[in-house]
Task: structure prediction
Amino acid sequence: MKNLLLFSKSASYTSLLLCFFTAVFMLLAGAVQAQDEDKPEKDTRPVRNTFESNWLIDNQTVMVPIKGTFEMDIQHRFGTVDNGYDDFWGLYAPSNIRIAFSYVPIEKLQIGFGFTKERKIWDFNAKYALFQQGRKGGSPFSLTYYVNVGIDTRAKASFPKDVYEGTDRYSYFHQLMVARKFTKAFSLQASVNVSHFNFQELVPGAENPEDLKQMNNDHLSLTFLGRLKVSSGMAIIAGYDLPLTDHDVNNPEPNFSFGIETTSSAHAFQIFLGNYNKIVPQLNNVFNQNKPQLGNIYKKDKNSNFLIGFNITRLWVF
Result:
């Protein structure tokens, strides 16, 4: 029976990975076809604005600003709407916020850092555009790699005394993103993500609290993002994050999010509903326990796990 369960889980993961690579294949196949149709006129310059911002809700996009760009990000997540009017649907509940800065020292490379309220995490990150979709020729898609290192700077007392070491504070996130701008209004992105935590705490098992269990140190997930412009300065945005790794305890929940984005030449503002609230990507992917369900938002409902969030991005070019 155990072997049958393991086979079932393996088959499930295989199916999900097949779905991911099928989506990527569709992106690339459509891209190659479009490239073939445009062979008479070649323009290999990078396509403009596959996305309007480095961020799309909870995830990075393939975009890297031009050389010399300095960026400031403010990311805010209110509380979940489960308490209804008591905390005004999460607006007055405890919230999470991240403030970050980044710079593009050379073409295609962005480096940055940020500080997040939850766990007092400092993260240091880098993003490099491996390929950029050409306008009419060149690469038919964009491929970008993103990595960050998070450092939990809470007091030492926050960690179990018998196992605490300095390196237990570190976590890592790797993301490989592929995207294509299909039309002037419509873009899609898919990515495979790997999260790693040097330390995972022992917690009581769901069936037997005396049976202490531990989450895996490594976690695999997939992300799908989309944007549809409805005017020159406004777009509908959506995202879906799918966990793949099966942990012994506290399996993370997927994230579904959607909202609107308004942009100008130097600003991007996004407001949305979603069920991720930790902002730092490895924390979102590994520790999210908010199920993607809305419930009854007109009264207290513990099944209402969505929350309101917003991102503000400001760019300066030097």
